[in-house]
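step=predict obj=Cox cluster protein n=82
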Amino acid sequence: MEALAVKRNVGIGLIVGVGVAVVAYAIRVFELFGPVVTTREYPVLGPEGWFLMLAVVFASATALLVILVLTGVRVARLAKES
C-alpha cells in the first residue's frame, strides 16, 4: 500500500471527485449556462434533491476513476524500475 501511494491517491481522487461534482451541480441547479427547457417532474425531492444525489454518485465514480488511474501509473513506474 505504501509503495503504491494509495493514501495519497485516495486524497487526490476525493478532492477531484468532489470538485467536479460541485461544479456540475452548480451548473445544473443554478442554471449557470441558462435555463433548461424541459417538462420533466421530479417527485418527492424536487430537482435540487435529485441532482444532489446524482452529484454524490458522480463524485464517487470520478474519485474511483482518478484513484485507479493514479495507482495504475504508480504500478507501471514500479514495474519499469524493477
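step=describe
The CA atoms of residues 40 and 68 lie 35 Å apart.
step=end
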